[in-house]
C-alpha cells in the first residue's frame, strides 16, 4: 500500500499540470470570483418623472438619478439611453419599469427599498415565468452546456488521434496542415451541430423552454458556437499529452468563460475585467442567444455577435494550423 501511495505522490509531484490544477487553478478561480461577484460598487441609473421631492432625495442617496420633464417611451428610452429603470408617479402610486431581471435591476430594487415607498408597481418589459428559473437564464445554459460537451468530445478525440499516431502518419503524407485541421473541424463540427439541434429541440418541446424570437436563429447560433467549441478543443489538445491533461484545462479554459456568458452584467464587473469577454467564444454565442431567446431580436440586431463568433473560429483555425507544425515529421 505504501509503495502505491509513494508512486502516486511521486507522479503528481513530477506532473506540473496536476500541481497547477490542485493549487493554482482553485486560487485563480476564487480570485476571479472575488473580483466578479464581490461588491462591484455599481451605481444604478434611474430616470424619474413626476415624483415627489422626498422620493427624489431618497433615490439620490444610492442611485444616479436623472429627472425628465416628459414621460418617455419606456422600452426605447431604456435601450437607447442606457438607463436601468424609469420611475414615475400618478394617481395609482409609484411605478417602476425595467427591461429584465438582472444584477443591475437588483441594485435598482435595493435603491427603491431604501426610500421605503409603499404601493409601488413593478413591471418588466421582458418578463419570464417567475416559477421557472430556467426561462430567465436559458440562453446561458443553452450556450454553456453545448460548448462544454463539444469541447470535451473534440479535445479528447484530437488527443486520441495523436496518441494513436494517426495524426502523425497523416502529416507524413503530402497534405497541407490547413486541410487536416479543416477536415477535423468540419467532421466534429457536423456532429456537434446535430447535438445543438437536439439540445434546442428537447429544451423547447420537452422542457417547454420559452423562446421569444426565431427558433431557426437560435439553432444557427448554437451551431456556430459548437464549431467554435471544436476549435477550442483542438487548440487545447495540442498542449495535452493525454486525455487527463485535457480535462485539467477545464478550470482554466471553460470556467472563466462562464462568467462572461450573461450571468453577470459585464459593466458591473470591476477593474475593467469585463473587457476580457471579447476573448471568450461563449460570450459572443450567449449574447446573441440572449437577444433572440429573451428579447426576440432578429438577425439585424445580433449580427455583430455572430460576426465576432465567426472571427474567433477563423483565428482559432489559423492558430491550430500553425501549432500543428510541431507534429509534422518530414
From TrEMBL:
GO molecular function: ABC-type transporter activity
GO cellular-component term (any): plasma membrane
Chief location of this protein within or outside the cell: membrane
Keywords recorded for this protein, A-Z: Cell membrane, Membrane, Transmembrane, Transmembrane helix, Transport
InterPro entries from the UniProt entry: ABC-2_transporter_component, ABC2_TM, ABC2_TM_bact-type
All residue ranges annotated as the ABC transmembrane type-2 domain in the record: 102-327
Segments crossing the lipid bilayer: 20-37, 139-159, 180-207, 213-239, 246-266, 302-324
Compartment(s): Cell membrane
Record membrane topology: Multi-pass membrane protein
Family: Belongs to the ABC-2 integral membrane protein family.
Protein name per UniProt: ABC-2 type transport system permease protein
Provenance organism: [Clostridium] fimetarium
Taxonomic lineage: Bacteria, Bacillati, Bacillota, Clostridia, Lachnospirales
Amino acid at each position: 500500500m505504501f509503495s502505491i501511495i509513494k508512486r502516486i505522490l511521486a507522479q503528481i509531484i513530477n506532473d506540473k499540470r496536476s500541481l497547477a490544477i490542485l493549487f493554482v487553478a482553485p486560487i485563480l478561480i476564487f480570485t476571479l470570483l472575488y473580483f466578479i461577484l464581490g461588491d462591484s460598487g455599481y451605481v444604478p441609473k434611474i430616470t424619474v418623472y413626476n415624483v415627489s421631492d422626498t422620493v427624489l432625495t431618497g433615490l439620490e442617496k444610492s442611485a444616479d438619478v436623472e429627472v425628465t420633464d416628459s414621460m418617455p417611451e419606456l422600452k426605447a428610452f431604456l435601450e437607447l439611453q442606457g438607463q436601468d429603470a424609469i420611475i414615475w408617479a400618478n394617481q395609482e402610486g409609484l411605478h417602476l419599469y425595467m427591461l429584465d431581471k438582472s444584477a443591475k435591476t437588483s441594485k435598482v430594487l435595493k435603491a427603491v427599498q431604501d426610500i421605503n415607498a409603499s404601493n409601488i408597481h413593478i413591471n418588466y418589459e421582458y418578463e419570464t415565468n417567475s416559477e421557472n428559473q430556467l426561462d430567465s437564464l436559458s440562453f446561458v445554459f443553452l450556450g454553456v452546456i453545448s460548448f462544454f460537451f463539444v469541447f470535451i468530445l473534440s479535445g479528447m478525440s484530437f488527443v486520441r488521434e495523436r496518441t494513436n499516431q494517426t495524426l502523425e502518419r497523416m502529416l507524413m503524407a503530402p497534405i497541407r496542415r490547413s486541410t487536416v485541421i479543416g477536415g477535423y473541424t468540419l467532421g466534429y463540427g457536423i456532429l456537434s451541430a446535430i447535438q445543438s439541434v437536439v439540445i434546442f429541440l428537447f429544451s423547447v418541446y420537452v422542457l417547454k423552454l420559452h423562446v421569444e424570437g426565431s427558433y431557426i436563429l437560435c439553432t444557427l447560433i448554437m451551431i456556430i458556437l459548437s464549431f467554435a467549441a471544436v476549435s477550442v478543443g483542438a487548440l487545447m489538445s495540442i498542449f495535452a499529452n493525454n486525455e487527463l491533461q485535457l480535462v485539467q484545462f477545464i478550470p482554466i479554459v471553460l470556467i472563466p468563460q462562464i462568467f462572461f456568458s450573461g450571468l453577470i452584467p459585464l459593466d458591473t464587473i470591476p477593474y475593467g475585467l469585463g473587457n476580457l469577454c471579447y476573448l471568450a467564444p461563449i460570450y459572443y454565442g450567449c449574447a446573441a442567444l440572449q437577444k433572440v431567446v429573451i428579447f426576440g431580436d432578429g438577425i439585424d440586431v445580433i449580427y455583430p455577435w455572430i460576426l465576432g463568433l465567426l472571427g474567433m473560429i477563423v483565428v482559432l483555425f489559423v492558430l491550430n494550423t500553425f501549432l500543428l507544425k510541431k507534429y509534422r515529421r518530414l
